[in-house]
């Protein structure tokens, strides 16, 4: 499969309607979530192999997720809801309720809950309300106050009696120091897995030459100091920027990008003057993962380094087209592992582990809801239990290529595929990018007899419902692999065997 249309921008997905504003006494924090993503449309005109741009304006059915590369979390306190007034005291004006909509990059982005909304603003002058007739409401309030006073009095009396009767002996039982020191976490427990994996993860800080940057995660790939992470985590540092990696014990190292693959959303960085005690994380087999398997994610959500969250594998082979939503953004495609482990901005590039502690994926994207507010910086989304990870079998191959040559190698079929929203399959376009042929002369698709207008519906046993899905499936293979395509032509179904070709680099 090819990525020759990587240069085309990904169009924004339709904006989701805002969640109804809660009542004034509700918390102003509204959590959004994901799929560093999904269920948004893929970018227009991204052609499987020939970068065709003629499909601009059309959306792809593959889920489009938010890249979760990170920006610094702004400081500041969120407004808290005031307590109801105690009878006899001056009532306080209600706090403004935050509202917001989600303009997606490809998915919604929450605004920081800073109290914008209708009603009296913080610090506004207080207007004395008209007196209300005393009734059951006043009685209930009085009862509440009385209960609070009685509770305080009872507590004070209880404390006094306990103090007067204290003869120096203790009625509590404490564990012995030896017992605490000997507590062991059995292999396979989350605590045991986390204790072993955390020392091999790093928080990555990338800073561009213009001062912009963000935070992500990575993990030790080998003893030579190579760290694997997401392409979008290090993107800011690619052109004369700065890159650093910090271990949980506080050791910080400068790093440099060895290679990056935008289409796969994988990057490899290397520590400068790496320590001699590096312990690479064990790599699992993502092909053997089953739905329902336990998962453990490690990362730095919203800058909170060394955070561990847990969940399960919710689905496999989930077609995902992800992007950071910027005007110059290029889409990444994956046949992802879906997990409900909490993944947020900052988890990008971090390991997704199985119950034994082996890496089965690289956390990359989340799907966001259309709500606003919540913890985190403005314009960033949070977890709703829809996270997506690049399968480690694919990421391992990509990383090895990047270490070896500095460039990614993509499998291709040598045909330009439409990204038009269609559940019928991936349709070969009538024309390729810049007026080139839709089917590359002498390429794998040409040799297999495919023609413009053919609609590919299966790759081996995987159902293909769109161009982005086909891209993700092809990229799970390596150049030289033999695959079987099922396609329709003139209402008739046909099959063809072909050997995947290769294309080096993202351009």
Would you kindly provide a brief summary of this structure?
The protein has seven helices and 20 strands. With 507 residues, it is an alpha+beta fold.
Helices and strands: which structural class?
alpha+beta
The chain-level mean pLDDT equals 73
The count of strands amounts to: 20
User: In percent, how much strand structure appears in the residues?
Assistant: 15-25%
Query: Percent of residues in helical segments?
Result: 10-25%
How would you describe the shape?
globular
What Rg is obtained from the alpha carbons, in whole angstroms?
A: 28 Å
Q: Spell out the helices and strands N to C.
A: EHHHEEEHEEEEEEEEEHEEHEEHEEE
Helix count from the secondary structure assignment: 7
Largest sheet: 7 strands, mixed
- Unreliable stretches covering 5 or more consecutive residues: 1-61, 71-162, 371-378
How many angstroms does the end-to-end distance come to?
14 Å
